[in-house]
Request: fold
Amino acid sequence: MPKRPTKKPPSENEPPTPSSSRPSRACTKSKKPGNTQALDNESDDDNYEPPAKSPPKKAKTASNINKKKSSGKGKSPVKSKNTKKNEEKPKEISEPPSPESNNNILSALQNLQTGMRTFRKSGSSFGGMRTVASELEQCARASVVSKIKEFVVYKSVTPFDRRTTALAWHPKRPHLAAVGSKGGEIILWNVENNEFNGVAEGIGPGGSIQKIMFDINSPTRIFTCSIDGTFEAKDLSKKGTSNKETFLNTGDWSKWYTSFDVSTNGMTLITGENTGYVTLLSSRGEQLWRDKLHKSKVTNIQFSPREPWLFATTSTDNSVKLWDIRTLTDSDDATEQRKTRFLQSLEHEKAVNSAYFSNVDGTRLLTTDQHSQIRVYRGPHWDLEKILPHPHRQFQHLTPIKVTNPQTYVSCH
Reply:
């Protein structure tokens, strides 16, 4: 019986001889349907050796996959389940700072402006800048809402026997308030000490204080306009009025000054009348001009905190008008009336009680009508940005509702 040939020991460069089981996948022979038996017989042969040119495939590792991804050549690597989950997971957007971390409303709004300037300098896309601006604006709104929720009645006094018609806070002394009544009485109320630092007697019926403001450089000097037809400056003490200066006096009970304001640089004063007239004065009380700018009663007048030459007037003729003092000076053309030189006229559905510029940058205007609308206009073209429904229908014996930019609230009754 012939001897069975012995196997040669595998060399170092030669791959190991496969076992009697099925060959590894490195074999070049493929499995064809209907010929499985022939393939099995070939794999059982002792002399069968796999081709030397096809070494066994290396197992796929994470490092190999990452290399292929970085090279970007060849077929896209097989994605693992974990990789797929990570891709499907949405990107987390950083939330804006919580209202608790930003206790100052003005600080939040200033952060909004700072963020927009940063994006402009870095040359980033407008979309990204708008996203950051939106997040900061939401933070500012949340701060406002959280502050309003915290408001409570701090103190309450009843110094008059008639209703309160005007009040103002000192711009440099936040604890000091000036309050005027329907009978013409005035008090300077120190909220912290709960004391009256100054008082002024009224004249009774017909002496209603329409508006009151502090002189920014004095804690006891105030400006007032009244239904008795006067526009005055008064120095108050605990004993009464120590000094009084009358700038204007109509001398007619049917005509009176309804509102006034002092420019931010303190150089000019401006007043409005119930007949639609507006008067511009110097800081010394000298009259520069007087003209009719509205068809009916002027209800409020205010200078812009940003531009000392810009001011807004409101009226019961359903309009808010913006003016430039520089264009209202005497002109060589006598046919051109001042009332036609307004920069913008913002028409409303009802009579308007007030219009106030934003205290932050003066680029927005907040108006209140005498029925149920609060409007926000945006400069520089003063386009209507938003209408807020707020029922506050005007009645004769109620203090007019005038929405403003609040720092501290005091209610008038």
